[in-house]
Here is the input.
Amino acid sequence: MFWGRFSEEQAADNKLKNHAEAIEMPKGEMYLASCINILRNVYGYVFSVEKGVAVDKSGGYLPLYTYPTIEYLTQFDFRKKRVFEFGAGASTFFWMERAAEVVSVENNQDWYTKLKAQIKPNVKLIFAENADFPLAISKQEGLFDIIIVDGFGYRYDSAVQALNKLAPGGCIVLDNADWHPNTAAVLKSAGLLQVDMTGFKPCESHTSTTSIFFRRDFDFATLEQRQPVYGKGAKWINSADWDKSQL
Here is the structure.
């Protein structure tokens, strides 16, 4: 079966090589071109850079987390979840379309004013400066299922406050975790399970790390029954006849 699939791919390669307009190049360069095409046209990376804001290929807003983090988070059903954000932005619009309730605190007055005019009723946008910024979450009623630590400054203090407001089965997302190892250590030492997701981000030309810290009883419902779902740019294969016991 595997040999049959290999033979079909080899035949396709030979047909392409014999095409009059085909340009032959090293296999590594050809694969690299395919990877760039996925980043450009499937993830919408170039469109995001040109637009100057984190968006997908269709213009839908994305949080400025790493692409692996975004793909992981978008598989879950957040329609009954409460989200708190330290730092508002395109991510606020992303969560606004998915979660039952979003509370975002922002410490940039101009950015706060701009966002205030665009949010929906399920979003509560708070302006808080200096020490009031990390303490804003403590003034909210109830617990939050997802807490995002991604604001300008005070990430360590925000993470400490987040631990007191995290619901059972919830998680904390720390962006730029590679730049904030002390903050990551605080969350991990609280008994949360740390998963680092390193990769490219919309609008940025270097890799970064967004880390998710899970309570040990984390079990969010997913939107699709099949897990994991195919990722962006993945090769779809029907493995029903060999993804099972062969004994």
About this structure: Residues 1-6 have pLDDT under 50 and may be disordered. The first helix runs from residue 2 to 17. The first strand starts at residue 82 and ends at 86. The chain is about 35% helix and 20% strand.
